[in-house]
Structure formats: C-alpha cells, structure tokens
Amino acid sequence: MHMNEAAYAHCRIDLMSWTRYRDRLADDPIIFVPVGALEQHGPHLPMGCDAILAAAMTARVADALGGLQMPTLTYGYKSQARSGGGQLFPGTTSLDGATLTSMVQDILRELARHGGRRVVLVNGHVENQWFLTEGIDLALRELSLSGKAMQVVRCEYWNYTPQPVLESLFEDTFPGVDLEHAALLETSMMLALHPELVDLEAMPEDALGSFPGHDRYPQDGRGVPASGVLAPASRASAEKGALLIESTVAAMVAALGQAFSETMR
Ligand code: ZN
Ligand code: MN
C-alpha cells in the first residue's frame, strides 16, 4: 500500500472532468465522501488531522473497491471536551449541527441527481456522527418522495481496526480508545502519511484527560490537559501508523464491499 496520496488521485471526482465522471458512474461505483473537522490536535499535529486521516482512509478503500472519492468536508460539528478537547482552543472552527446536516443532505441530493446510488460517508471526527446520520435520513426521506432510491453507509474508520492490532500498538497497557484524541493512534498515522506535518519537538508530556460521566455547558475546559492531547502520544511511530492504516483499510474494504454486495442492482 502506498503512503503517498498521489497514488490514489485517479478516484477523485474533483480532479476529473464531468465526462469522465459520467462514464465512471455508468458502472454504479460506490461514491465515498470523507468528513473531518478543523480542530486542535495538540501542539504537534495539524488542525486538519481528522479530515486528512478520513481522506487518506477513503482514498485507499475507494481505490480497492473501484469507487469514486468526493472532496472532503473539512469542517465538522463542535468539539466536545471528552472527545476533542472542546471549543476553547484557538483554531478549532466548527459548524452548527444543522449546517453539517444540510451539507450532507445537499451532497446526497446532488449525487442522486447524477445517478449515484451507493454512497459511503467516511467519518474522521467523533462529534460528527449523528449529524451525518440526520443528513442521510433527511436526504433519503426527500428522495423517496420522488421515487429515487439510494443506499448510504455512514462509518467511523476507527471502528474497523482489529482489536489485536490495537492491543499490540499499546504494548503492555491498552487503555481503550476513548481518549485517543491527538494521541498515539492519530499521531502514528500522521507520522506514516505526512511526517513533514508532525512536529515531534512540540510533542507534549504524556497526560490523560480526566472526566466525570457528564458534559458541562458552557464548556469550561475542566479535565482537558492544557496541550489539548487527551492521552499519551509519546510512543507513536510511523511503523505503528502504517500497521494501523493497512489493517484498518483491509477491514473496511471487506466490510464495505459486503455491505453493498446484496443490494438492488
Ligand atoms: Zn482527531
Ligand atoms: Mn476530532
């Protein structure tokens, strides 16, 4: 598997002419839409991390399944303390839920107009999940009124990483992935894909977010380490990142291929 994005450019519809896109659509390809966020990821990672990683996973899966890749949605729903450190950091730039929902609904409506019938939203930002679902639901309700059918899958790429791989990456102490924001997993994947965007000298001291069972509003940053990194990142490596990406992509290809194998063709 290449770690270079240019190897996957042939799937991207924004780099394609409309006539080429029209011809590719005749084969009823799966159309992938990566979704991320602009959100602080500690002092060592770029703020586009969730969008960059969602797009990288999408590119590899789309290539393997003969699919098409839409441009990434690079803004997401508001960061929450327990999953992304919250909205108090400069740079984190978020959408209202209704905005994200409408963007998804609009894109699905357009894909249906083109004749697309099988779509996968590949999510890279925890907080987006239910707003993507809402956009899908509203789009399908609208399409059904006009007699059009579309099959849509929403997935979070991290759910496909095989458990034994996760346990091997954390070596002796596997803490679970709940606080994995800008931590070992994302840092490792960024080191594998874009080492030039990772500032290892700015890597913060290992710390762990500490949260009760509830969320407080207005957000006050309680329990969030000052760096914005919610769990230890210091043992990240490019090798771990490559293993994560390859094993996760393989599982996604199998699962998503299966998801559409018995659909209306
Ligand atoms: Zn992230
Ligand atoms: Mn995020």
Question: Would you summarize the structure shown here?
Answer:
The protein has 265 residues and is an alpha/beta fold. It has helices spanning 18-25, 49-64, 81-84, 97-114, 129-145, 163-169, 184-193, 238-259, and strands spanning 31-35, 68-69, 76-77, 94-95, 118-123, 151-156.
**Average pLDDT rating:** 95
SS content category? alpha/beta
Which runs of at least 5 residues are low in confidence (pLDDT < 50)?
none
What ions, cofactors and ligands are bound?
zinc ion, manganese (II) ion
Largest sheet entry: 4 strands, parallel
What is the second-level CATH architecture? 3-Layer(aba) Sandwich
The share of residues in extended strands comes to 5-15%
- The CATH superfamily turns out to be Creatininase
Shape descriptor reads: globular
User: How many β-strand runs?
Assistant: 6
Helix and strand arrangement:
Blueprint: H1 18-25, E1 31-35, H2 49-64, E2 68-69, E3 76-77, H3 81-84, E4 94-95, H4 97-114, E5 118-123, H5 129-145, E6 151-156, H6 163-169, H7 184-193, H8 238-259
Parallel strand pairs: 1-2, 1-5, 3-4, 5-6
The structure holds zinc ion and manganese (II) ion.
The site of manganese (II) ion has 6 residues, from loops.
